[in-house]
Amino acid sequence: MVRSMFKILLLLIISATNLHAEETLVPLDRQAKLLLKVLSYDKTLQQRVGKQLSIGVLFDPDNAVSTAVARDGYTAFHQLRKFTVQGMKVTATMLAYRGGKELAAYMKEHGINTLYVTPGLDDALSTVLRVSRAMESNTITGVEKYVTAGVAVGVVLRGKQPKILINLVAAAEHGNKFSSEIFRVSEVIQ
Questions:
Q1: φ, ψ (nearest 5 deg) of residue 75
Q2: What is the pLDDT of residues 67-119, one digit of tens each?
Q3: Across-strand partners of 94?
Q4: Domains of the chain, start order
């Protein structure tokens, strides 16, 4: 009985690890640096976000993979707090998704102007995007299908190298106006 429980636990751990690796292929510390670099090319960033870039690392608290990626993502962004983007301080907080109204209220109350969307939010993505568009907040991710679905910026793996993805329609809907320089090193999704 104990041996069976141990095997089941081990299988669950391995499954969660594999899911985590599949969903987030670019290491989160590298993703965070690249995503902040991309945002530095947004010509409207300062006027939209104010004095600091406040990143909410959005996750599904009922999804182990989403929660693990959020923890790692928060750590990666938090470690960059000494850096600035267009002269603005960078802050990060973990933000559990509990619904659209709650998300909007939390973002407004805490000044969150950028959402890092973790894997595991497939069912909530349309609501997350609706809220973020209404608030003209930046949306960033490491999940390619989320960029295709409407997140503005992503960093994914192409071969063995990270690749920046920019969804032009989504970026415009979220209020981003990127300098043409960033398009030389990114893949544009229209």
A1: -60, -45
A2: 999 999 999 999 999 999 999 999 999 999 999 999 999 999 999 999 999 99
A3: 57
A4: 2-189 (3.40.50.2300)
